[in-house]
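Minutes, project huddle
Topic: does the predicted pose make sense with magnesium ion bound?
PN asked that the exact inputs be recorded in the minutes so nobody has to dig through chat later. Recorded below.
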Amino acid sequence: MTALRSSAWFDGDDEVALAHRVAVRMGGGEIEQGERRPIVAVIDTSSDANPCNLPLRELAEHVRRGVTDAGGTAMVMPAMSLGEDLMKPSAMLYRNLLSMEVEELLRANPIDGVVLLTNCDKTTPGALMGAISSDLPTIQIIGGNRPAPVFDGRELGTGTDLWREMDRYRSGEIDRTEWRRFEACYACGTGSCNTAGTASSMAMIVEALGFALPGASTVQAGQGPSRDVSYETGRRIVAMIDEGLTPSRILSEASLRNAARILQSVGGSTNAVIHLAAIAGRAGIVFGPEQVAAAGAGVPVIADVQPSGAGLMRELDRAGGVPSLVFELGDLIEPEPVTCTGKSLRASGRAPLAANESSAAIRTVSDPIVAGPAIRAVSGTLAPGSAVIKAAASDPRLWRHRGPALVFHGYDEMRERTQDLDLDVTADHVLVLSGCGPVGVPGMPEWGMIPIPKRLLQQGVTDMVRISDARMSGTSFGTVFLHVSPEGAVGGPIALVRDGDMISVDVEAGSIELEVSPEELDRRRGEWVPPVSAHLRGWPLLYQQHVEQADRGADLDFLTAPTAAHRRRVDP
Ligand code: FES
Ligand code: MG
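Predicted holo structure (tokens), as shared on screen:
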């Protein structure tokens, strides 16, 4: 066994070590001298304000059992919960704060290894980023997907079906009574969204990176397997401490490429592109939209799950989850990176469990749901950094398009004008939303899926080109270019677009161009007035002063590695 970090707190006969041992005993643990039990932090992000994470509350005790049985001492520690539904302007504003909380909890306390209990979109990357910065042995538990509600005999996918019903309601296809009836059905229990939105995308990425046991990332909330995997995870972290299996041994460019391929193979969330860049940044690795798109070369969408496919996460889990995706992707998964099991991701591969032919949740590379890559990067005069698009959930007829801009400068304006039946707009227009990037709002809310103007909805238009510096929900769809960087609030070209400017996009060529002369753009730049922030103090101010652009993961500049404070292991 390698020397325990926590020994710095407990070894010795002086009054300080004595007080430390007593504190642990008063908390329900036991500290012996000599052959000591490693201490495992069980970071619990459950909260009544975040129903997605509530299943974790029960799982923490199963982790504790596993840790104890394997010879460790578990300390359950609550950490802030980032609930996607309730937090305004966006839970994303707090992802980096959670990462700091986790890192500092680990730094300040006598911890030898950590189990992260997370579920909803931002808790999963946020907690992992903090643990990577600590470089203590780390393993993650996912709380699982919520059950599917049934509406008019049809199972609903979270998010994806809400957006569809919203369009039906706005177009007048369903009335207010129907809309209310939909609301009553939509509340279906705790757990994460049951589609391949951001939460499930990030869960599968965590497993593919090597930070969760094989099959653990697609468990269903509140069911037996989630308890079993929690117990096994508790046992495994104790062994990882013994083996010195730290994040710096698990996270590499190759493990990031493997994770990006799993994301591409499920047609997952565009938000995951930002989180992958931030996770990589904590280890000093550059892994932005270009790298995610490049890793996706030759990777088709093989998971039949919404929003890129038709099914729910439950079916993907039943078919074998990530180990079966790994199996089907074969040589597309690189063999080297080691995972929390001590073995490679490839070694976890197993053949999918066959459903009947017509409803296979995991298809083969030669017979995919959609040709890949699902998520692509573009750049050009409108987005000199980059922008991303989930091609798999958009209309290929719009991938190459040229049209006049119709610009919205904020959320309220966008909501109001898209409802206006007199809005001067055609299906050829390119809708642009600026000022909603990481600095702009702050926290880069999910406003990027600009609603199709009501006037066009009534004409039967279901998709059109939309461009913004915001994000969109992982469960959303449409020909939407997101995460334009640099964003409008820092003076990116998207801030300079005016109504009627011609914009051309070409997904296959990877381009996004604002057809305005450099001289005219310079002139507009000279007139451009930076927005004045409403935030004068506290976290939002600190965030706006230090957040990086989306293509760098929207992390805070002083949290990325290497910095003066960065070490391979947090020292007491
Ligand atoms: Fe929490 Fe989707 S809103 S997982
Ligand atoms: Mg979401």
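Observations noted during the meeting:
- The mean pLDDT is 94.
- The first helix runs from residue 7 to 10.
No decisions taken; revisit at the next huddle.
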